[in-house]
Design goal:
Helix content is 36%, strand content 23%. The protein has 471 residues and is of the alpha/beta class. It folds into 2 domains: 196 residues, Hen1, N-terminal domain (c-terminal autoproteolytic domain of nucleoporin nup98); 195 residues, Vaccinia Virus protein VP39 (Rossmann fold), CATH 3.40.50.150. The strands form 2 sheets. It has a 7-stranded antiparallel beta sheet with strand order 2-3-4-1-5-7-6. Strand 11, helix 16 and strand 12 form a beta-alpha-beta unit. The termini are far apart. About 7% of the residues have low confidence. The structure holds S-adenosyl-L-homocysteine. It catalyses: small RNA 3'-end nucleotide + S-adenosyl-L-methionine = small RNA 3'-end 2'-O-methylnucleotide + S-adenosyl-L-homocysteine + H(+). It is an enzyme of class 2 (transferase). This is Small RNA 2'-O-methyltransferase.
């Protein structure tokens, strides 16, 4: 028999009916279920499933053989497993939680949206949490989130107290939270507690951290420590995560927005100012210099630029346009708490840019920020006609990736595009050929500006064109 090592977590609610927990977790209380996960097998079962109290248990059987086969991650050897086993268990539990309760963690429950959005009384018990930092750290991490924390160090062997304390903590959390929130707290903080240093961290982890930390991490007093440990002390990554969190603190929607439309790979590891921010700043500067007051943000996505535009009183009328209803919902939520007198300057419209929309005519300026590359190339002439031919704003600002720069992104495999939805990425020459031809056909003058560091060899990461109407 293989020597497997089990880690247990239980969640209890007294919400009525308590068996709603089964709906929330998408796991039926009446049957035990098992799932293969990266580290071994995960089992979900319900020790209690009554109307007044329900407990779900997640038992993770960590299988060292699977670990060595490399399903968990490349940098993990059996030797490390044996030596560091207690420290890595927290990370594995987090990974198991996110794969077994993925939908629950996202907080979407189509059949019972109300239930998923409701904070319910929860007790979470993890009898053996590996913790570097002891009970104090556990309190520091969970208490600011509204959890009541009971953390006891577990003796190495209760029969032989003289052996001293183990690196494990018996952790009980009590609080009232949405279940999705509670799961996201655990997903981030368990690996932070175990602080395992030896597994792979890629730029993708930043996105995972920001997504799971949505709504709570930006204001957490220990956000720096959390980011450092979560990102395995990779300094460039930690800086990036913190700068994105700082950007996010006025709006919880930033991460959602990142998930929605930010490129998969674009941040240069040692640049403290994210490229997305530099891009928005450049666009705003061009619009201000053009003296524009009534502005269209075409393909506005989750509204990151709209938020910058609305901060500038000189933009008296701002219209965000997107074909995606989901993007517009995210954008709308961003302004829920904006005072009405400010919000009145903003309109959101669902419209496809490849069709003529008469209501877009007569504006001072339009922005197409990171939009054209999301259209199939044969559809571009339709967009050109509706924007430059029919809407005909005085100024049009277009940004798009410069594919030549892709070699400078350390995590982007050769030949891959920056975002899975990009239909093309152009060289500087290709972009200029397109923009020159548009300007000529529709009577605009065009000039070009770099966004981000202008590399002597491959140019800037983002290319920007400013079109001005000639007549
Ligand atoms: N401008 C935003 C979003 C860029 S992602 C930013 O830079 O952050 C591209 C956006 O273009 C997506 O939100 C997508 O829904 C939108 N889009 C793609 N094709 C479109 C079309 N034909 N009409 C309108 N919007 C479109």
């Amino acid at each position: 028999m293989r020597d497997t090592h089990a880690v247990l977590l239980t969640m209890t609610t007294t919400h009525r009916p308590a068996t709603d927990l089964g709906f929330l977790l998408h796991k039926h209380p009446e049957k035990a279920q098992s799932f293969p996960v990266a580290a071994g097998m995960a089992h979900v079962f319900y020790p209690t499933a009554r109307e007044d109290e329900c407990t779900a248990a997640l038992l993770l059987d960590i299988d060292p053989i699977e670990l060595v086969r490399g399903r968990y991650d490349r940098a993990f050897t059996l030797n490390q497993y044996v030596n560091d086993r207690p420290y890595a268990a927290g990370s594995m539990m987090a990974v198991a939680l996110s794969s077994v309760f993925k939908t629950a963690m996202n907080g979407v429950l189509k059949s019972r949206p109300q239930l998923a959005g409701t904070a319910i009384p929860l007790k979470i018990h993890i009898p053996a949490v590996p913790s570097r930092g002891g009970p104090d750290l556990v309190v520091k991490l969970f208490e600011p989130l509204g959890w009541q924390v009971e953390a006891k160090t577990v003796p190495l062997d209760p029969q032989f107290p003289q052996w001293g304390q183990s690196p494990y903590i018996d952790l009980r959390l009590t609080g009232t939270h949405r279940l999705s929130e509670a799961l996201r707290h655990l997903y981030v903080l368990l690996p932070v507690l175990d602080n395992a240093k030896h597994y792979w961290v890629t730029e993708e982890e930043i996105t995972k951290l920001l997504r799971a930390g949505e709504g709570w991490l930006a204001d957490h007093p220990s956000r720096e420590l959390i980011s450092q440990r979560y990102l395995k002390h990779r300094r460039g990554y930690v800086r990036l995560a913190l700068s994105r969190l700082a950007e996010a603190d006025e709006s919880d929607e930033e991460e959602l927005d990142n998930a929605l439309d930010a490129p998969v790979v674009e941040e240069e590891p040692d640049r403290p100012v994210p490229l997305s921010l530099q891009r928005r700043e450049s666009v705003v500067a061009v619009l201000k210099a053009a003296g524009a007051h009534r502005v269209l943000d075409l393909g506005c996505g989750g509204g990151a630029l709209l938020r910058d535009l609305i901060k500038e009183p000189s933009f008296t009328e701002i219209v965000g346009v997107d074909v995606s209803a989901r993007a517009l919902e995210v954008a709308a939520r961003r302004f829920e708490r904006t005072p009405e007198r400010v919000r009145n300057r903003l309109t959101l419209r669902q419209s496809a840019l490849t069709y003529v929309d008469k209501s877009l005519a007569g504006y001072d300026a339009a922005v197409l920020m990171e939009v054209i590359e999301h259209l199939d190339e044969p559809r571009l002439p339709a967009l050109e006609r509706s924007v430059f031919g029919e809407a005909r704003p005085g100024t049009v600002v277009v940004t798009t990736p410069n594919v030549e720069y892709n070699v400078r992104f350390p995590t982007l495999p050769v030949g891959k595009m920056r975002h899975s939805d990009h239909r093309f990425e152009w060289t500087r020459a290709q972009f200029r050929a397109w923009a020159d031809s548009v300007a000529e056909r529709y009577d605009y003058r065009v000039r070009y500006l770099p966004v981000g560091q202008d590399d002597p060899e491959v140019g800037p990461p983002t290319q920007l064109a400013v079109f001005e109407v000639s007549r």
